[in-house]
Write a structure and sequence with these properties.
By secondary structure, this protein is an alpha+beta fold. The protein has three helices and four strands; from the N terminus they run H-E-E-E-H-E-H. Helix 2 packs parallel to helix 3.
Length: about 120
């Protein structure tokens, strides 16, 4: 149990360290990624007003049923990129939320890039 507590504390510290330097603005909002063992969530946030501009998850909508795998995360990123293009958002700041930039988290960023949004 102690090992799990240490792991969670390190992730929380990484998250806070990252969040100190990353802020979303209306021109360049923050793309925040959260992944659990069963689902993946991504949302684009304007931190100045505290509003979510666009979001996708593997729980609802056209991306329902996607697993937290690299192939499915790329599809999720492409769906988010299409939503951002509809909102006329061309650049975002990537917030990996304490996760390592590898695998599923990287696939979401690559999917958004493939849709034509600069990350």
């Amino acid at each position: 149990m102690k090992r799990l507590d240490i792991k969670n504390r390190r992730k929380r510290q990484r998250k806070l360290r990252i969040r100190k330097s990353i802020h979303g603005t209306p021109e360049r909002p923050r793309l925040s990624v959260f992944k659990s063992n069963r689902h993946v969530y991504a949302q684009v946030i304007d931190d100045t007003q505290g509003h979510t501009l666009a979001s996708v998850s593997s729980l609802a909508g056209e991306t329902k049923g996607l697993k937290p795998r690299v192939e499915d995360a790329t599809k999720l990123g492409e769906a988010l990129g299409a939503k951002l293009k509809g909102e006329k958002i061309t650049t975002v700041v990537f917030d990996r939320n304490g996760n390592i930039y590898h695998g599923v988290v990287k696939a979401i960023a690559d999917g958004v890039r493939k849709a034509g949004v600069q990350v």
